[in-house]
Design brief:
- It is a single chain.
- With 289 residues, the protein is α+β, with helices and mostly antiparallel strands.
- Helices cover 37% and strands 13% of the residues.
- It has 2 domains: 11-118, Transposase Inhibitor Protein From Tn5, Chain A, domain 1, CATH 3.90.350.10; 145-288, no CATH class.
- It has helices at residues 23-31, 57-60, 107-118, 121-129, 145-172, 187-190, 199-202, 237-246, 251-268, 274-283; strands spanning 13-16, 35-39, 45-47, 55-56, 67-76, 82-90, 98-102.
- α5 (145-172) packs across α8.
Length: 289
């Protein structure tokens, strides 16, 4: 568990797909006082109340397309009978409903959290297929856990950078590229050391995300500008950002994101003091000393 890394001011909620539907996991989370929203299989036996007999979720929580069914104080498992709240969500365009087990007292909150989880499908596909890891080679021999820490940190930063570029591409590419202009002055040329940037600097940050595409049902046709990067299927922000970085004629878009990151990171990241640099060199990069 990584819950000790979460701020006490934050209430963590574990959201998972059907692979995490285990009675043992449910009991462990409840014993530690953690909430969860986890999808369960249609064939898993549940009880909608203490008087009902265990029955498959598809039968006990059956609902018509477009309907919701909320059954608080149910149980999960024919033998384990873990106390949970049960929710069935059947959107009109879904082939089958979602069956969710949760400890949240609100059906609306449980449904919203699981919908947010479904928005990660494109990013999950990128991670599973190795969008960034397989750029050079598919073989990575790591002999030191510290090297794994560095690799994961670099991949997280690279994915974040690609996602920002892809997000800006959604905003800028459907329009005409900006006319070439003289390079903007750097932050060091416009601000004295330690000075806070004006509010206008942050007003030109990454664009707002586009509307979320439905993960089920008919998929809208690709816009003309996106057909340059994809022949079929929509791209995640990470994959789109990676394609933009490869395009020589789109460097203006990358420069815009890099300029914003420079303004943002330079003014919000404190400089390392000498003792901090020595500590990091000793503990983070011992083989470089």
């Amino acid at each position: 568990m990584l819950t000790h890394l979460v701020s006490p001011a934050v209430r963590p909620v574990f959201v998972g797909d059907r692979g995490f539907a285990r009675a043992q996991l449910f009991r462990a989370l409840q014993a530690q006082g953690h909430d969860f929203v986890i999808r369960i299989d249609a064939d898993t036996h549940v009880q909608v109340n203490s008087f009902a007999l265990p029955a498959p979720a598809a039968t006990a929580l059956a609902c018509a397309p477009g309907a919701r069914r909320w059954q608080p104080h149910g149980t999960y498992g024919a033998d384990a009978r873990v106390p949970v709240h049960l929710l069935a969500v059947h959107d009109p365009d879904q082939a089958e409903p979602w069956f969710l087990a949760t400890t949240l007292a609100s059906a609306e909150a449980a449904e919203q959290l699981y919908r947010w989880r479904m928005r990660l499908e494109c990013s999950n596909r990128d991670w599973k297929t190795g969008v960034l890891l397989r750029e050079g080679d598919d073989h990575h021999a790591l002999t030191n856990p510290l090297h794994l820490h560095r690799l994961l940190l670099a991949l997280a930063a690279a994915q974040w950078g690609c996602a920002l570029v892809g997000l800006q591409a959604w905003h800028d590419l459907p329009t005409t590229p900006p006319a070439p202009t003289a390079p903007a002055p750097t932050l060091l040329e416009t601000l004295p050391p330690g000075a806070a940037p004006p509010p206008a600097v942050f007003a030109h940050g990454p664009a707002a995300p586009p509307p979320v595409l439905p993960h089920r049902g008919p998929t809208p046709a690709l816009p003309p500008w996106l057909r340059r990067f994809a022949t079929r299927g929509w791209l995640s922000y990470v994959r789109l950002g990676l394609e933009v970085l490869r395009a020589p004629d789109l460097r203006w878009l990358v420069r815009r994101v890099v300029r914003w990151l420079g303004h943002y990171l330079w003014t919000t990241t404190p400089l390392w003091r000498p003792w901090q640099r020595r500590y990091r060199q000793l503990h983070w990069w011992p083989d470089a000393a």
